[in-house]
Amino acid sequence: MSNIQPFHIAIPVYDLEAARKFYREVLDCPEGRCDTLWTDFNLYGHQLVIHYKPKLADAPQLHHNPVDGHDVPIPHYGVVLEWDAWHELEAKLEKHNIKFVIEPGIRFKGKPGEQATMFFLDPCGNALEFKAFKDIGQLFAV
């Protein structure tokens, strides 16, 4: 997997400054190019762009699908981290008093694809999942 190319994702945020602070200070994402309506970040080697989008009064709530006994927010995005980096991020999020949508834990324990995972929201309600595998070969296990 050492030849994986960076992905690019652009997400909507209704509070650009709160989102910039979250990605910069909580997730430690280096900030890249910036304009009045968007900002680029380096999210673990991938390009994340936050774009301003006004919050609608009747904006739909997150949808959830059941996965391994949890209600997983849809949509969501994130990064597969190395095992130790995942635990470091978990500690950092707890230090910043980030509320978890799904608490850090092990999913699919003892089954193919066993993984550490956690879900939380950015200040604008975008759901993030960060996960890790002790054996990265389990990433696409069936």
Give a structural overview.
The chain has 142 residues and is an alpha/beta fold. 17% of the residues lie in helices and 41% in strands. The chain has two helices and eleven strands. Strands 7, 8, 9, 10 and 11 form a five-stranded mixed β-sheet that branches. A hairpin with a 7-residue loop joins strand 9 (100-107) and strand 10. The longest helix is centred in the middle third of the chain and has 13 residues, at 83-95. The radius of gyration is 16 Å and the shape is globular.
* Low-pLDDT runs: none
Computed over alpha carbons, the radius of gyration is: 16 Å
**Mass-distribution shape:** globular
Decide which structural class fits the backbone. Answer: alpha/beta
Mean pLDDT: 93
What share of the residues lie within helices?
10-25%
Q: Beta-sheet strand percentage?
A: 35-45%
Reported for the largest beta sheet, the result is:
5 strands, mixed
What is the terminal-to-terminal distance? 18 Å
What is the overall number of helices? 2
Number of strands: 11
SSE order, one letter for each helix or strand: EHEEEEEEEHEEE
Q: Strands, helices and their partners?
A:
Layout: E1 8-13, H1 16-26, E2 31-34, E3 38-43, E4 46-52, E5 63-67, E6 70-74, E7 76-77, E8 80-81, H2 83-95, E9 100-107, E10 115-121, E11 127-132
Parallel strand pairs: 1-4, 7-11, 8-11
Antiparallel strand pairs: 2-3, 3-4, 5-6, 9-10, 10-11
Give a nutshell description of this structure.
This protein is of the alpha/beta class and 142 residues long.
Key structural traits:
four-stranded mixed β-sheet; 11 strands; 142 residues
